[in-house]
Amino acid sequence: MKTSTKKPTRSRKISKNVLRRIRLFATDVDGVLTDTGMYYAESGDEWKKFNTRDGMGIKLLQRAGIITAIVTQERTKLVARRAEKLAIPELHQGVMDKLSLIREMATRHGLTLSQVAYIGDDINDLETLKAVGFSATPADGMPQVAAAVDYICQKNGGEGAVREIIEMILEAQGSKFEVRGSKFEVPGSGKRS
Fold this sequence. Notes:
alpha/beta; six-stranded parallel beta sheet; two-stranded antiparallel sheet; 7 helices; 10 strands; 31% helix; 17% strand; disordered N terminus
């Protein structure tokens, strides 16, 4: 007999006012920016698959003036390279107390926790998810996390969940990107890529 493990869904509408206040966007890595897999070669090399659309979303947030951050317990060169490629100013690896770090970042940037969005997928993210202004988890986040967040994504980790949240934030803040030739810009930001 096959049993169904249906994920809870959020039916409540997210207030655009909450999303308009966001000034710092922080994300976990494994299970959020990547799928939940860890890939190892016989040689010992480790691989992670990142979603390029999530990466473009992070660039759009930056162009809209939102601070971007990676906060993870893992410590890998792969994550450092991804953060460098995306010019993420706040890269924090090997973090065991994510909430303390998020509080410190917010304070350093003159923000309150209500101005922070965080997306995580597992129990080590719970305390932080409960404390920030807007919290989310990918569709395949752990049930305990799904029960605690403001929003459960339609997409899985590593498959566009981060971009889904970013588009919600940008839309609420009135930022839309326009393609002009091979450049894009976020109106009002005065920045182009």
